[in-house]
Amino acid sequence: MLQKVRIDKWLWSVRIFKSRSMATDACKSGKVKIGENNIKPSYLLKRDEVIYVRKEGFNLTFKVVDLLEKRVSATLAQPCYEDLTPPEELNKYKDWFVGKGRPEVREKGAGRPTKRDRRDIDKFKDFE
Predict the structure, then answer these.
(1) Are 64 and 81 in contact (CB under 8 A)?
(2) CA 66 to chain centre
(3) What integer pLDDT is reported at residue 57 of this predicted model?
(4) Which residues are CB-neighbours of 75 under 8 A, at least 6 positions away?
(5) Which residues neighbour 46 within 8 Å (Cβ) at sequence distance 6 or greater?
(6) What whole-number distance in Å separates Cα of residue 73 and Cα of residue 82?
(7) Are 110 and 93 in contact (CB under 8 A)?
(8) Are the CB atoms for 11 and 23 separated by under 8 Å?
(9) Which residues have C-beta within 8 Å of that of residue 94, sequence separation ≥ 6?
(10) Which residue ranges form the domains of the chain, and what is each CATH number?
(11) pLDDT at residue 99, as a whole number
(12) Per-residue confidence (pLDDT) for residue 107, from 0 to 100
């Protein structure tokens, strides 16, 4: 049984992030915290620690129940953490997510967005 595992590996293995590099980037940019401290991707995570993750504008809170080193299915990953995210933050996420099924439409003949267009779109959507 594992005693410690890298936090970027754990965040990826329990499917909080889609890729390990995304988890590593989140750690490097200060979006993953334990207490008030920003965490490096190489931080060795232990059981019963509480992790604060800022992902896509939402503040998520997780308690580590079990440690994983390899990515597993969502059903196997679920018992490895306890979601302590406050209800108002979950409601904010659900309100944002519900009804987002339709793709965005661009005018015919407008082509792909340029780099400048992409920045304007991201600023409009308030992405970080």
Answers:
(1) yes
(2) 18
(3) 83
(4) none
(5) 3, 4, 64, 67
(6) 16
(7) no
(8) yes
(9) none
(10) 5-88 (3.10.290.10)
(11) 64
(12) 85
